[in-house]
Amino acid sequence: MSKRRVVVTGLGMVSPVGNNVETSWNNIKNGQSGIGELTRLNKDDFPATAVGELKDFNIEDYMEKKDARKMDRFTHYAVVSSQMAVKDANLEINETNANRIGVWIGSGIGGMETFEKQFETFLNRGYRRVSPFFVPMMIPDMAAGQVSIALGAKGMNSCTVTACASGTNSIGDAFKVIQRGDADAMITGGSEAPISQMAMAGFIANTALTLNKDVSKASRPFDKERDGFVMGEGAGILVLEELEHALARNAPIYAEIVGYGSTGDAYHITAPAPGGEGGVRAMQQALDDAGIKPGEVGYINAHGTSTPYNDKYETMAIKEVFSDHAKQLAVSSTKSMTGHLLGAAGGVEAIFTVLALKDKILPPTINLENPDPECDLDYVANVSRKADIKAAMSNSLGFGGHNATIVFKSYDE
């Protein structure tokens, strides 16, 4: 059975570098960081104070206050970004097509902020004062659920929870839904709002976050001085669409999604497998699924968290998969500017990968000042550059040993 071709027709985003795709991409191309000092919480309570917060984002600019109060922050981000993506795709969802349009949005930790606030209410005022919306606000699938309700999409509705691979797994899973014929379009990506008391405390406790007090340089993937990631928040949503369906309605086409790989390390709850072995298999799976050779890939948006093990092992994995071509590959980590958006990272970074292909511009890895000798690839250090790339890859790796890779190509008629 021949596989149906799937293309990207819409993009939507809220991120630390901008509250829409255009602003975010312009800042990424220009190497402008969205990372700053923690403001949402009391920064004196934590040794890690560098975060990637959204700026000037007011949910009441997008929906009624009474509706917003029934959703966690991560769902706000998903709904707003999905509305942007559907508008960008010029996709009208109505009674004639709603059953063939689905939603697949991942989140790593869901409504952590809601959980904290409602538990405090329980402790101080008892169970009768806990909100009846507590559970549907907290659970990670509610971003997909609320997007479906807001947009009227009645097709497959799902949520992938694979820690920091959630967004990429969701896009890959949605891609396969269309490819096998179960939907004509999918609204997909990831959303996360992890800048909360317990999320910050938990990641500090397992030594994952950077303690660098120079917040402008705290996220420094592949740099010898890296010491942990920076927590970020936001959402990245794509509209994926079956090619003939997109052409029939004259939809804008950004790129074609052609490959997906997903593997497990079976090694450790937080540490990546030595040498990035699981990532090797995910990348190879994605290439095999796409039917392209390693030498055809011109750019990789790396997971690139700015943690000691991840950056070293991801570099090793890329070398294993791409062999001699690894030295010709451009690799960059946009987390140097956004921080790590956990379950939303794959959605946001998929958009940056698609736009790198479309605009033929490689986003930089900023703060790469003292290269780690063990990280010796071309990381597009500090300044973006033009490059005529035809295929690009995005990697996401999560706690629990989850590895996910997606491959995009320039759209050829």
Automatic annotation (TrEMBL):
UniProt record, GO biological process: fatty acid biosynthetic process
Class of this enzyme: transferase
UniProt keywords, alphabetically: Acyltransferase, Fatty acid biosynthesis, Fatty acid metabolism, Lipid biosynthesis, Lipid metabolism, Transferase
CDD domains found in the cross-reference section: KAS_I_II (cd00834)
Pathway annotation: Lipid metabolism; fatty acid biosynthesis
Enzyme Commission (EC) number: 2.3.1.179
Catalytic activity: a fatty acyl-[ACP] + malonyl-[ACP] + H(+) = a 3-oxoacyl-[ACP] + holo-[ACP] + CO2; (9Z)-hexadecenoyl-[ACP] + malonyl-[ACP] + H(+) = 3-oxo-(11Z)-octadecenoyl-[ACP] + holo-[ACP] + CO2
SMART domains xrefs: PKS_KS
UniProt-recorded name of the protein: 3-oxoacyl-[acyl-carrier-protein] synthase 2
